[in-house]
Each structure stands twice: as structure tokens, then as C-alpha cells.
Amino acid sequence: MGSDLERLKQDWLDRIAGAGDLAALEAERVAALGKQGAVTALLKTLGGMSPEERQSEGPRIHGLREAVTEALTARKAALEGAALEQRLAAERLDMTLPVAPAAEGSIHPVSQVMDELAEIFADLGFSVATGPEIEDDWHNFTALNIPESHPARAMHDTFYFPQNGPDGRAMLLRTHTSPVQIRTMQSQEPPLYIIAPGRTYRSDSDATHTPMFHQVEGLVIDRGIMLGHLKWTLETFLKAFFERDDIVLRMRPSYFPFTEPSAEVDVGYHLEKGRRVLGGTDHFMELLGSGMVHPRVIAACGLDPDEWQGFAFGCGIDRLAMLKYGMDDLRAFFDGDLRWLRHYGFRALDVPTLSGGVGA
Ligand code: PHE
Fold it and tell me: How many CA atoms lie within 13 A of 236 on its CB side?
């Protein structure tokens, strides 16, 4: 009996060791330890034995069951381990690859400058507002105190659509970002501190004008706003944008129908190897238009001009990009020439921050 059990045990251990996969191993487990299993049947014979027999055979049969159970557990672990090894070898995730191997695209300087503007003005408490590029006549002109007969309409070289808008007049491509002033005053409660960067359109084309160009509008509506707030805001913005403390502004009286008084803002520059570099007071050039929001514009938006005042400014974004990053022909901005984009473009992860320098 003893050597029989030994052989039986070796037999099971061999079978278990020979199970090639988890399904085969499970079949061996059922054959040995299942309800109808061979080892289970042996355990059942204990019941029919005399007490003496049971005392000698019991431990041996239980020992057999234990040895088989242990072998099953060990083989299972080995098979599972092998299966895992195989998966690990087959499923590859190469963590050493760079996130963007030799990035193909780049951020256009106009997008970069818009991000820089948003960052600088966010720090001053301004949020970003938007409006449609296809505008109606009322938002683009009338609400901005430019009535039908006003010569400013002709100055804007407007692209008109054949279709009329809700005001019964031809829809148009907005000629400036100023209609966003109107939309913001109509849709939000003052105090308002916003900038509105975006595309604008005028029928005009040469080295410094393209039919589509970019502007950023600034608008503040609050109580007790004065010209000094406008000048401080522009100075703070331009110093941060050009990353120099020697930016000098000069305000020149000017005229816009939607501001009163109006001021053209000139900025000082000097020449370095024939290139214009902002800073200092050697020369001045015109940079942007601005002024105190005309009471009629405030009233057209349903606000009381005796309670609310504000300033506004409008600045060409493409111009800002050219001055900061040194391009000299505006038309190249929109040619889509890959060589130009690779040279002047920015890497996608170079997000401008005030702490890291908005210059990228
Ligand atoms: N909208 C004006 C332009 O396009 C600029 C401007 C904006 C002037 C806001 C004053 C105030 O020329």
C-alpha cells in the first residue's frame, strides 16, 4: 500500500508538472481533487477502515492530498508567471520616446502674441471676450456712434455681404474689433475689464496691410475711470509685452467717433543696426488708437453714462508681432510658407507666462 501511494503521488506530480497551460492544469485538479477525483476517492476509503488502519493510512493519504494541492498551487503560479512574462514581452510601451519627436507644426507668431496678450492682461484683471467676424452694420458702426452718413464708414473699406442683417442693412466682415465693446456691454454687467483679440477685415493690401489682419480691443467700464487709467494700463501692458522698462508713450489728440477725447498713442524707439527697436525717445511711431468711451456708445448699450465711464483702445496684433519678433513684411504672415513658419513659429509647449517671460 505504502509504495502504491508513493507511485500514485509521483504520478500526480508528473501529470501536474506536465500541464502545459492553465486549462490543462485545471483539468488535472478536477481529476485529482474534484468530487469524482482520484485523491478524493482515496480519502473516502478512510471511512471504511478499521481504526488501526486509519491511523497508519490516514496521514499518508492526507499527505498525498497535501502534496498534490501544493504542486497544483506551485504549477499555477508558474504558469501565470509565464503568461505574464509573455504578455510583457509582447506588449511594448517605450517610455523613453520623447513626447513630440521633432514636432512638425509650430505656433504662428500671431497666436503666440494673442497668448501673450491674454497672459499680460489676465494679470491686470482683464478677461478675454469674443464676437463674430461676420457682423451687422449696427454693431460695427451705428452703435459705435458712426451714423450712416459718417465719413468713417468710407474710411473703413468695408467688405459687405449681399444679405441684410437684423437691422435691415447689409451684413459685413467686421472692420475692427470695436463691435466686441458693444456686445460685451450688452451681455455683461459692469464693471467690465476685457480684451478682445481677433480677425478683422478691410479691402486693403500692401507690405503693411492685408485684407485680413488682427486687432486686440481693450475695454474698461467702471465708475470714475479717467485718462490716467488708460495711459497707465497701456504703459504697463507694453512694458510687459516688450520686456523693457524704457518704453515711452506719447499721446496725441486724435479722432474716433466712439471715443471722446481720443488719442493716438505713439511709442518711442531707437535704431539698432538699422532695425527699429522699441524703447527710448530717439524716434516715435504710431502704435494704437484709444480714448475715453463716448457717452453715446455707453448709452447705446443701455447703460447710464453718468454712472459708468471707461476707456478703450484698439491695436494691431500683427504689428505688435512684427515689432517684437523682427519680421518686416506683413504679407508673409498669411502665405503659409513652411520655411517662414519654421523660422518664426513657436514650439507648442512654449506657453507664455509672466514668471517665465512672455517673450518665449
Ligand atoms: N477701432 C479703431 C480702429 O480700428 C481703434 C480704436 C479702438 C480706437 C478703441 C479707439 C478706441 O482704428
Answer: 14
User: Would you say the CB of residue 176 lies under 6 angstroms from ligand 1?
Assistant: yes
**Cα gap 145→49, rounded to integer Å:** 113
> Long-range CB contacts (< 8 A, 24+ apart) of 298-304?
298/185, 298/221, 300/142, 300/143, 300/145, 300/182, 301/143, 301/182, 301/185, 301/186, 302/185, 302/186, 303/185, 303/190, 303/221
pLDDT band at 357 (very low <50, low <70, confident <90, very high): low
pTM of the model: 0.71
Q: Print burial letters for 260-274: b (CB count within 10 Å at least 16), e (below 16).
A: eebbbbbbbbeeeee
pLDDT, tens digit (0-9, with 9 covering 90-100), for 128-156: 999 999 999 999 999 999 988 887 787 67
- Distance, CA of 216 to CA of 318 (rounded, Å): 10
Which residue of 258, 287, 296, 320 sits with most ligand 1 atoms within 8 Å of its CB, as the best mutation to test the pocket? 258
Closest C-alpha residue for ligand 1 atom 4: 176
Residue whose CA is at the smallest distance from ligand 1 atom 6: 314
Which ligand 1 atom minimizes the distance to the CA of 218? 9
Contacts of 298 (CB under 8 A, 6+ apart): 185, 221, 304, 305, 308, 309, 310
Query: Hey, is 23 helix, strand or coil?
Result: helix
Grid-cell match 468713417, residue found? 152
Q: Backbone phi, then psi, for 258, in 5-degree steps?
A: -100, 5
Q: Are 146 and 153 in contact (CB under 8 A)?
A: yes
Q: Retrieve residue 72's grid coordinates.
A: 497544483
pLDDT digits (tens, 9 = 90+) for 174-208: 999 999 999 999 999 999 999 999 999 999 888 78
Over the stretch 244-264, which tens digit does the pLDDT of each residue have?
Answer: 999 999 999 999 999 999 999
Q: Of the residues 155, 213, 216, 256, which should be mutated to test ligand 1's pocket, given the most ligand atoms within 8 Å of the CB?
A: 256
